[in-house]
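Structure ticket #2291
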Amino acid sequence: MHPIELDRGTWTATCLGEAVRLLPKEFQLLETLHRHVGKTLSREQLLDAVWALESPIDRTVDDHVYRLRRKLAAWRDAYAIRTVRGAGYRLEAKAAPAERRANPLLADPVHAERMRELLDTNLLYGNGDALLALATRPDVFGFELDAPLRSFVPFLEGRFREFVEDRMPFGDRVFFLLHLFHLMKPRESRPYVEAALRQRVMPDIWHTEVELYNIIFMLMDWGETDAAAAKLEKLWPEALDGEYGNLVPYLANLRLESCIFRKRWDEAEREIERIEQLMRKYPFQREEGRFAVLSGLALYRERPEAGLERIDDGLATLRRTRFVPHLAGALDAVLRYAAAEGKPSLANRYRPEWERLLSDTEMLDVLPAIEAELRKLL
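Resolution: structure written out below.
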């Protein structure tokens, strides 16, 4: 573990030869996290430790963590402040190269194939904690991810800044850059998406995903709901016949979303009944969470309290998966629905979590850099 030197006299912290001058509260926050390195501390615990004689709010912690992360960017190879959804924050130490032991299983092709199957299963079922463990501890599990999935890990965790810092080839980043930009500026994403598909700059796994599946929700956001519905109708029987395997619940949720945003309420009810049956066969957490949110939106029209309860259950499920982009996508769907249906109370209920997510992931800060990167496609 790389040591951190903390100097209270100058409010300076030093690691990897990089000295960082902090404000007093930033220093105390880092000091508290460092004292409990590897342990998750709730916002309440951090407030008690750093602001004991004051009356701050949870947002105070979030703002200071945000600024501290930016100031400690030079330490990214040694430490990271992680957001633990629904729990708080923790300071994670990365092992120094000399501390890592080579695992002989890394050279075993049979073991590698078994681990890929385990990885695929956890990815499919939305087990984010297990996926992150497999991805970040090759010394323990004797398994290393290939390049496309290695780039998926920071995306899953919401470490979006890494996609604009040139730490991986541009082609490996394009899939993630497109998704992030579309989430924030869906109406402006089309030329970048079309250019990426036309130039085939993404690895095959991501090119196929955008070309066949992601393009459906993108078309919805571009206002081409009929084109999106036509693609869904074409894919649906093929998915049921096994052509697209475990994508059935994903496509089913897209069908439901299409009904909701086209105001086809009778069709939405039928889709909800269909998906309830499908989920017994495909108990995938991410899709279960997404379904709960979407069905909650449909229910909210006539039974607001029951709709809110279902939406809350869906968001809680998505938080447990640790898949940050999927949680962001669900919150975005709720806010878009609230805007389309003129439901300000619904928006007010969920906008604070959306804004906190944007802050935690530094999304607004990196958005201009994301667009600058995507301009390379045009």
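Closing remark: The longest strand covers residues 79-84.
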